[in-house]
Amino acid sequence: MSLRTGSLQFVLRFILAAGFMLGFGAGPASAQEADASQAAASACASLVAAEGGTPDALLADCSCAPKGCVRTQGYWGSKPDVVWPKYDRHAVFYGSGLSWQQVLDSPPQGDAYLILAHQYIAAALNLAAGASAPNSLRSVVVAANIWFNTPKPGVCVKGACQLQRAWASVLDEYNNGDYPGAPKHCVED
Question: What are the distances in angstroms from CA 172 to CA 10, 37, 105, 138, 148?
Answer without folding.
Answer: 15, 26, 17, 13, 17
